[in-house]
Amino acid sequence: MKIRHIDLGEKPIVLAPMEDVTDPAFRMLCKEFGADMVYTEFVSSDALIRSIHSTLRKLNISDAERPVAIQIYGKDADTMVEAAHIVESAKPDILDINFGCPVKRVAGKGAGAGLLQNIPKMLEITSAVVKAVNIPVTVKTRLGWDAEHKVITTLAEQLQDCGIEALTIHGRTRAQMYTGEADWTLIGEVKKNPRIRIPIIGNGDVTTPERAQECFERYGVDAVMVGRASFGRPWIFKEIKHYMATGEHDQSMDHRWKLGVLRREVEESVNMLDERRGILHVRRHLAASPLFKGIPSFKETRIRMLRATTTEELFTILDEIAVLLDDYYQG
Hints:
Layout (H helix, E strand, L loop, with lengths): L1 E2 L2 E2 L5 E3 L8 H9 L5 E2 L3 E2 H5 L3 H4 L11 E6 L3 H13 L4 E6 L4 H4 L11 H14 L4 E6 L9 H11 L4 E4 L14 H8 L7 E4 L5 H11 L3 E4 L9 H11 L8 H18 L2 H13 L11 H9 L3 H20 L1
Parallel strand pairs: 3-11, 4-6, 5-6, 6-7, 7-8, 8-9, 9-10, 10-11
Antiparallel strand pairs: 1-2
Helix pairs in contact: 1-11, 4-6, 6-7, 9-10, 11-12, 11-14, 12-13
């Protein structure tokens, strides 16, 4: 699969853009474990043109994580164009436009998935951004605003006509938020449309290697995007790649190895920020790790993880979990 000159190989698995998750440290871990492309956290165009420091920091990318896309969102074409110029100067491989974020503070203000209620404005923004920059522009969106307005089959062609070079589709409507099951049927219909010439990336509920493979085989997508399933599990890309190559699950990653990865995630978060902010940032991702699923009476331990304030405290809890997992897998 190629996005202009960027070759992602056959059946790439990419890391979704996620607010407060896909910071540089996490992106590098996912890249190490096989993610073929990574996306930054989404960037507010309004905050970017006002030079808000915390927003500008999101533009920090490194050559080691390439290919990398910076994602922006906004509701005004002029602002998005100005933001796109700023993003281009950060030298990402791709500029991605977010038309999919469903949260109220974004969609409720007419940006993100809110633009699914104003398709002419969405297309105006897309065309303006494509014309403003020299790097490839892609879009991430949803099936539609709600079940009665699933517009993606028509919208995909319209966005392609604006000049985008790839389209990511999350298999839910805005009304669904992140509830219910992702519906890949319409994603498959878009891909099978003979008028669609750009790569189609499918997103939503890819939580296992088997599901990733099924999405390629059943729906014909060019790439699969993994989002929330990477929380506390950056090795999911290695799991998927191994399974797709061999048809078997990778047995080399036992629970002790995975705990070591989680420790690294803590250390790199602290190194990137500082101990207080690093722990606040990373602890909820660790607490959500599927590695702990099935451990009896784990609720209290999870609460302690969510309340930890120092590296020492969090590592002590991980040491305790290691013993619990030893017993769990031996018994």
